[in-house]
Write a structure and sequence with these properties.
Elements (H helix, E strand, L loop, with lengths): L1 H20 L8 H14 L5 H6 L3 E2 L4 E2 L6 E7 L14 E6 L5 E11 L13 E2 L2 E2 L1 E4 L9 E6 L28
Antiparallel strand pairs: 1-3, 2-3, 3-4, 4-5, 5-9, 6-7, 8-9
Length: 181
């Protein structure tokens, strides 16, 4: 029995070592994949919209559409006590879309970090998460919001443009749900 198990265990061990030592090109590093797993686990409870509201995420009544191209964010829910978080378990914002039954479906998350010098021309403080640099610096989206960096993660709805792209063309804002111009 030992003789028959030895080749199997040796093969299994070398396969594990190969997978650990040589990740596929373009694949997450172990650290990035572990951080994404933390985000999945931490945000899974927010599929129940009421849990997000209880956790301090304030819903915007408007669905945010990309006015410059395809896609949308959906309905942002911000918890500004989490601004400047680089913790994968604590995104600043959650994004929801209409579920077609009068409720909301969680589709993505975002982290927002304020630019240290508030200068759009410098980016020496650009943060990274999931081995991915944040976009920015960019102007605030509403009065009083500082210049900041942002990182979106389409964790709960596939984005054909990329998992870290700002807008998702598969997220649709129904007519009459967007902020008036």
């Amino acid at each position: 029995m030992t003789r028959t198990l030895t080749p199997v265990l040796t093969t299994a061990a070398s396969l594990v070592l190969t997978l650990v030592a040589a990740p596929a090109a373009g694949a997450d590093t172990g650290r990035a994949a572990a951080a994404r797993a933390i985000t999945y686990q931490a945000t899974a409870r927010f599929h129940q919209h009421a849990n997000a509201v209880k956790a301090g995420y304030v819903p915007d009544k408007y669905c945010v559409v990309n006015r410059a191209g395809p896609g949308a964010l959906g309905y942002p829910h911000f918890n500004h006590s989490l601004d400047n978080s680089l913790d994968p378990a604590k995104p600043t914002a959650l994004f929801y879309e209409d579920d077609g039954h009068g409720g909301k479906r969680l589709v993505g998350v975002q982290w927002m970090v304020y630019d240290r010098d508030q200068d759009l021309a410098t980016d020496d403080d650009r943060p990274t998460l999931f081995d991915t640099p944040f976009k920015g610096p960019q102007r605030g989206n509403f009065p009083g919001q500082p210049i900041h960096y942002a990182l979106h993660l389409w964790l709960w709805k596939q984005n054909p443009m990329g998992v870290f792209e700002t807008y998702n063309p598969r997220v649709i804002c129904r007519p009459g749900t967007t902020r008036p111009k």
